[in-house]
Write a structure and sequence with these properties.
This protein has 5 helices and 6 strands; from the N terminus they run αβααβαββββα. It is α+β, with helices and mostly antiparallel strands. Helix 2 packs antiparallel against helix 3 and helix 3 packs antiparallel against helix 5.
Length: about 170
């Protein structure tokens, strides 16, 4: 009974940490609802495992096997899109505030920042040791802003293997 109570407590603590991160992203999304077109898509772990199972029919395709392995390690994907039909989008200052809020309050680490032809991508993660853990991608384009919130159990070495696999093709 004691181990059951300890396990339930650990589960509740981990669930509250994920909900705090989600709350931060939801608040950002809700702030822009009045003046932009906002959409949210959420895909759970069962759907990801089902997609991986469908890929098992691909035969000996090495890419399909790599993607299947990656999909089996994804627990949840949530995508928020903010589009303004008038052409203006989320300001760089608001994105910087969101990024610093994730780093300061939610303890995310910056993995990468990429700029290309007016587009800007920030990739942040919060994981333990060599686990990728929770990944947030902030993607800004001329008229769109996308937030991808990915919860995974993938290891960094598995991500590197995926990159090598797809680069070899």
């Amino acid at each position: 009974m004691k181990s059951f109570i300890i396990a339930a407590g650990c589960f509740l603590l981990s669930a509250s940490a994920v909900s705090a991160q989600d709350r931060c992203l939801r608040e950002f999304r809700n702030k822009h609802r009045a003046n932009a077109e906002v959409h949210t898509v959420s895909v759970g772990g069962f759907s990801m495992k089902l997609a991986g199972w469908c890929l098992s029919f691909a035969g000996d395709d090495a890419d399909a096997k790599s993607v299947k392995h990656a999909l089996n390690n994804v627990r949840r994907v949530k995508v928020y899109t903010i589009s303004n039909v008038n052409g203006s989008t989320v300001s760089r200052d608001e994105i910087a505030d969101l990024k610093s809020n994730l780093e300061r309050n939610e303890h995310f680490d910056m993995l990468m920042e990429v700029r290309d032809k007016g587009s800007l991508v920030h990739i942040l993660n919060k994981g333990k040791d060599d686990e990728l853990g929770n990944v947030v991608m902030l993607i800004q384009d001329a008229s769109d802003f996308v937030i991808v919130n990915l919860q995974t159990t993938m290891k960094i070495s598995e991500v590197n293997s995926l990159i090598r696999q797809f680069a070899s093709n």
